[in-house]
Amino acid sequence: MIDCHVHLWDPAEGFPWIRPESEHHRAFDEHDLERSGAGLDVSGAVLVDTGETLALRDIRLRRPDLAVGYVANLHVHGAGGPEPFRGLLRELGDLRPNGMRLGGTSWTDTPESARALVPVLADVGLVLELNLHRKALTAAADAAARHPGLTVVVDHLGNPPNLRAPAAVEWYREVERAAASPDVVVKISGLLTQQHGVPPRRIAHMVRHVVDALGPDRCLIGSDWPICLPRGSRAESLAASQLGLAHLADDQRERVRHTTAVRVYGLDG
């Protein structure tokens, strides 16, 4: 399995969103990531944008056994504009990011300067990854329509509300919209945190709905470690992400767990 969503950070280097009283307010490095994967059927992980682009590249260089790829932060490159960003990607060559993440409350709340870089991603064949708190799946479908050939990965199932909330109904409609856009891929992650207290059978139903709507060639698995830790271990988080895969044939399950990640992110198999 490829764990497509892990973070490494050191609060001493910034990260003001990590509150001092939080369990997350400590450094998590490659050694912590290695220990968290002991005994798991994980062949590698994709690091996601909690560091500068070159810092993530350096981790990838140091520990290719752990970090099989990385998704960097699109926001930090917005100020320079499209051409310097394009030049950086060209300079990084084979060590460029496997994707660039754009985050915010909604698409229109993300920095305009960062959104201006999306056409570059489409031109060079790099994944756009979205972490939006509202209507992420709809935004992904819209972005894919505006930029033919752009693959858009949606983090955390599109950040649905807790299944016990009435607003969850709208999320199911968004899944159908995303399913109609062949260049949208959904990452099954964040479930321990977002669906805390929801019975496993209901989480399994939600995961199965996504996998059946988009198909195993458009779904990925991620633990969201160490964000998941207040609710459970990396192993427990990955188990939650796979609750809705039992009905799949072995080869379909392998695509969700591994093969789709290799293709979408352009990883070394």
Summarize the structure.
The chain has 269 residues and is an alpha/beta fold. It has eleven helices and eight strands. The chain has an eight-stranded parallel β-sheet.
What this model shows, in words?
- The protein has 269 residues and is of the alpha/beta class.
- The chain is 39% helix and 15% strand.
- It contains 11 helices and 8 strands.
- It has helices at residues 30-36, 53-62, 82-92, 112-115, 118-124, 136-146, 168-179, 191-194, 200-214, 234-241, 250-265; strands at residues 2-6, 44-48, 67-73, 99-104, 127-132, 152-154, 184-188, 219-221.
- Strands 1-2-3-4-5-6-7-8 form an 8-stranded parallel beta sheet.
- Strand 1, helix 1 (30-36) and strand 2 (44-48) form a beta-alpha-beta unit.
- Helix 6 (136-146) runs parallel beside helix 7.
- The chain is globular, with a radius of gyration of 17 Å.
- The mean pLDDT is 94.
Shape estimate: globular
The count of helical stretches stands at 11
Low-confidence stretches: none
How many angstroms does the end-to-end distance come to? 11 Å
- Broad structural category: alpha/beta
Widest sheet, order of strands: 1-2-3-4-5-6-7-8
Main beta-sheet annotation: 8 strands, parallel
- The tally of strands reads 8
Helix content: 25-40%
Report the average pLDDT across residues.
94
Report Rg.
17 Å
Q: What portion of residues belong to β-strands?
A: 5-15%
What's the structural blueprint in terms of helices and strands?
Blueprint lengths: L1 E5 L23 H7 L7 E5 L4 H10 L4 E7 L8 H11 L6 E6 L7 H4 L2 H7 L2 E6 L3 H11 L5 E3 L13 H12 L4 E5 L2 H4 L5 H15 L4 E3 L12 H8 L8 H16 L4
Parallel strand pairs: 1-2, 2-3, 3-4, 4-5, 5-6, 6-7, 7-8
